[in-house]
Prior knowledge:
Elements: H1 2-29, H2 31-35, H3 37-52, H4 57-98, H5 101-119, H6 121-133, H7 139-156, H8 165-173, H9 185-208, H10 227-258, H11 264-270, H12 279-286, H13 293-306, H14 315-324, H15 328-353
Helix pairs in contact: 1-3, 1-10, 3-10, 4-6, 4-10, 5-6, 5-7, 5-9, 6-7, 6-14, 7-9, 7-14, 7-15, 8-12, 10-12, 10-14, 11-13, 12-13, 13-15
Amino acid sequence: MEQVVAQTSLGINILLGMVALCLLILPLTVRWVESHLELFLLLVGAVAVTISGGWSGQLVRQTLSSPVYVSFIVVVVSVIFNNYSRYIFRVLFAFFRALEPRYSFALLILVLGLSSSLVSVTVSALVLAEVLKVVNLEHNTMVKITVFACYAIGLGAVLTPLAEPMGLVINQALAGPPHHADFFFLFRHFFGWIFPAVCALAVAAGYTARHAGTTLQMHIREDKETYGSILRRTGHIYMFVAALTLISAGLRPLAQSTIVHLGGKVLFLANAVSVIIDNATLAAIEIVPTISTADLVYMVIGLAAFGSMLVQGNLPNIVAAEKLDIKSREWASLAVPTGLALMVGYFVALTIFL
């Protein structure tokens, strides 16, 4: 009987592994998938849940309700920018005129990265996208700055339980002994690791914009975005978040059987799967109250550092890419090398200093 169960589990894990490969490969190789990414992710999420036998009324309710808050924020911020952009961007114009582009972009990404833990990653990503939409940068330069900024936003979000579900999951899991996590628990343990990386990403963004000095222009959009356009974009983001809920639930058995018992350093590398599985889901699987501080640091830094490699890997990526019309392949071509550089830098630093 145990052998039959083991074979069944092995078969399910093989099928889920194939689903995971599809999630990694098809958005980068098939144009239809790239152009209809949210529909593809919804379909794959439903397939993964079906394979793992995870369908339930609770999951359906969670899938329908989990995108509501993010969608609401997207609508509210979009309407505010749409109706009051003239006043908002006058302040930004003064800011960009006062500093050279390399300094203004570096400071912008630094502020967005460090403030994302308080204002939410969705708001930070929307502010980034709105700024870049009125700054006439060459497209490749704009994509690079967006990627660096989304990495910074994703890393900065680790510092409090407010910005994204992962921080809340960690705080709740470690609220009791021996860690007794309070609101500032994440800040105390991770600021020293996060701040240098956010600064490095800000510098990289500034360096990327260094040649924009003679061509940089900002314009106030006289043509307002239609409410239909705002609702369509919000609908796409709603589908993205709903799809990530299904994918995380569907791939949970694969994650539980492959990475839950790994040590800190191996767990750091294994958390590369955060490019396709929601960070909060992985955190819920990996964290136990007795986890050591060292293993916790490896785990959380791994989740934060890998998450922005693909568009679907992190919420800020989804929001910014949708708003700025950045395709999966061009995102990955810049974000994967950036993520690998972060991975190597963090792994060396953690090995030496932790």
